Amino acid sequence: ILNVEQSPQSLHVQEGDSTNFTCSFPSSNFYALHWYRWETAKSPEALFVMTLNGDEKKKGRISATLNTKEGYSYLYIKGSQPEDSATYLCAFGDSGTYKYIFGTGTRLKVLA
Amino acid sequence: DVKVTQSSRYLVKRTGEKVFLECVQDMDHENMFWYRQDPGLGLRLIYFSYDVKMKEKGDIPEGYSVSREKKERFSLILESASTNQTSMYLCASSLAGRAEAFFGQGTRLTVV
Question: Which residues of B touch A89 (CB under 8 A)?
Fold first, then answer.
């Protein structure tokens, strides 16, 4: 089973702080990398679909970068707000099987 | 908006019962997935389907089977429920290729 790791496991930040977390994945058989946000009592929702080495995506205060050669992606949140509190999941798409393997997530809590 | 609907939000079943979890999507997506989510383990793929009547095993298919008779519906079957199948089950669908997945609201299954 392929290993997709996310760090840190959990994070508490103050409102207004900027933060970032990491998704590490195999550097071979790359197909795509997805980022999802999962709020309590809701369904996971896609943030970004990243497909090319060097990709940078942005949605409001949230951005992500991708390095497929070394097998990592960073998610950045600028000026965190309480509504950013959620678990952030990454999913690695394997070109050999077309399966998506999820990391265990980073749980973010933004304190007002 | 894409809608993925799971038949039950909460379910309690007895050990040995045959359990059906139903999932319906309304956006004509080719791919459908069943995951289970357990604390500390992230989302683990049970089965997926990329077309009607087609199915592929995920990482943890033991004790489960699936059915996809129509494009919009993907059923997960627990042939003989056991207590170690107590979990949160999430259904998802996506277009073919690198597209992101859309998730249902989840079914929390307790086997007693």
Answer: 42-43
